[in-house]
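Step 1: inspect the first sequence and its tokens.
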Amino acid sequence: MDIYSAIKNESIRAGILRSWNNLHNAVEQNLERFPFLRDFAKDVKEAKLEIAKNYEYWIDKAAKALEDAGATVYFAENAEKARKIAGEIVGSGKIVVKAKSMVSEEIHLREYLQQLGNEVWETDLGELIIQLANDKPMHIVIPALHYSEQQVAEILKKIGIEGRNAEEMAKGVRVFMREKFKNADVGISGCNAFSVENARVFLIENEGNIRLSTSLPKTYIALISIDKILPDDILALKSVIVQAAFFGTFPPGYINVNRPVAGQEMHAIFIDNGRSSTEFVEQLSCVRCGRCQLECPIFQLSGNIWGGSVYGGPMGMGWSAITGEMTENAFLSCLCSKCKHVCPMYIDIPEIIRKIRIKIGKG
């Protein structure tokens, strides 16, 4: 789907506005009730940008902490290397359960593992719908917001799930996924924040699927983009709290804190993919709450189609550029600066978009 088709797609706009109606006031209420959230955001931004000055040092420190705790650690300079490392760990003929991870989308991991002959399942309900529909996530946190209940019912029939309403369909998905969790050989997750202090992977969720994906399989792979590295547990906890609160859910449904445990192989892949060399350094402080997307007037018309092949919306302009994809969709931004004002990190996204336009113009 191109940007012009997306604008004409009524279900995209309806889904985004429905989500905006549900979450906009929730964020405002969170900030009014808990003013310390802005202080948390400031602390996290300062820490992230300080670490970005010397990623090499912090990656080495993080790797040592994980190895001391019993994990096997890898470093991937780019998406291809990250896929290859994960593929060598998984092998072929395995059942793989995946937690929702935009970094895995960034490196196209699910498709790669399927090509190797593995059965790979997204375990987040929204991501499962996207997988079955052969679509792309329409929002960084709510991937299937553009599908109606009726459309989801048709999509889930592909795996034999039928239901008269959302509750029945969700129950059918739980039963289906339960068997995948029980028989899974490998579990894969992303990372919302990583604490160097105690080698801990922090993950937030609201369905319980991440906990099952990362704890039941004998082999667990954590995909850790280097922008998620933080010095200690307190800052990592602040980061996931800010992410949840500025999305609209506070306190978070679940906060998982993972590290190597007896009886399970843990593999941690630190992924650079343009982060250590980007000129758009401020974007690296992003916690990916997705608030800028829902609040953006252009995104409200076109969804995640406005952006690169993976990352869309205001924050998607910067992340696409960092990961090697300068998109001319940057010229469709109205530069109204709403994204900057709703961002917990006050990232100057309009200025990033201006710089992208200049670079594209210069060829």
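Step 2: inspect the second sequence and its tokens, then contrast the two.
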Amino acid sequence: MKDIFFTPGPSELFFTVEDHIKNGFKNNIYSISHRSSEFKIIYEECINRLKSFLKIPQGYHIAFLSSANEIWERIIQNLIEEESGHCINGAFSKKFYDFAILNKINATAYNYKNQEYKINEIANSHELLALTLNETSTGIMCDGDTIRKIRSKVDSLIALDCVSGIPSLPFNINDVDTFYFSVQKCFGLPSGLGVWVYNDKCLDKHNKLKEKKFTGTYHSLHKLHEMSQKFQTPETPNVLSIYVLSKVLNDMMKIGIENIIRDTNYKSSLLYNTINKHESFSPYINDKNIQSKTVIVSNCKKESDYYINILKNKRLIIGKGYGKVKNQIRIANFPTHSKEVFELICDELTHIK
């Protein structure tokens, strides 16, 4: 039995990735020019599959970057002139806020420690409001209904961090103006590619903003959008990731996004039930409305290394608590994790003393 990775990302590769990478070598995909017609076909195919699989509406556009972290900077540079609002419920949403402060943005932090967003507290005046679909560090989820309620209240551009949520956690794309993710979590690819989706309102804001402030060089939204219309990127891109993402999207389309969401719900229920019944574990997030279904975080009586090493001896690799937290484990529940391997890890957790 090979190692099975339940780490929150990078994580277990989607089960078809290895074959797709090998086929790319056979077909010389990784040597073709990024200005060639062959690459344009790969790019266009990937964009079309993203739009089809995620049901992205008309008026939304897609650009490829290096990571979600880079997309934070691109959003700050290209969509915010003076101020922004940030709903913070963990380390990653806090980092986006920190990035804004470093870029001299008058950023407002709404801090929610292990609780739902309090919609009545959020001002309507922000240029951009940053939300998180799933906070990877703490295992807090924001459901589509909450996003809809926020949309109905605020006129701001809304940016949604979907890094460890999409496609497993559903939301209405029309409720946000831009969303983004990286590929090493739910999509099960090697790290190194960020996907930025933005709508026409973002383009309008950027076009006004670029007359007033510096919005970047080769990765300004204007340049990214201009090149994407030609199925190209401004620089030499991660051709391997774009090619393999397109192939994995095709595989996921055959499974169906509704089936992926259903299986995610089943597996998360199985794991939470196991944690709740075990005397050594307890959910870090007690409110079931915001318990993540894709990154399950559990408190533990002993230091996390004790449980991590027991499971590692069984070839099951789980994550520790984020940062300096020592009495916590994190277990990813991504589409590549079958129901069978989830039943296996739940059995092994049950037997730990």
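Step 3: confirm your contrast with the notes below.
The domain at 17-254 is CATH 3.40.640.10 (Aspartate Aminotransferase; domain 2). The first strand starts at residue 4 and ends at 5.
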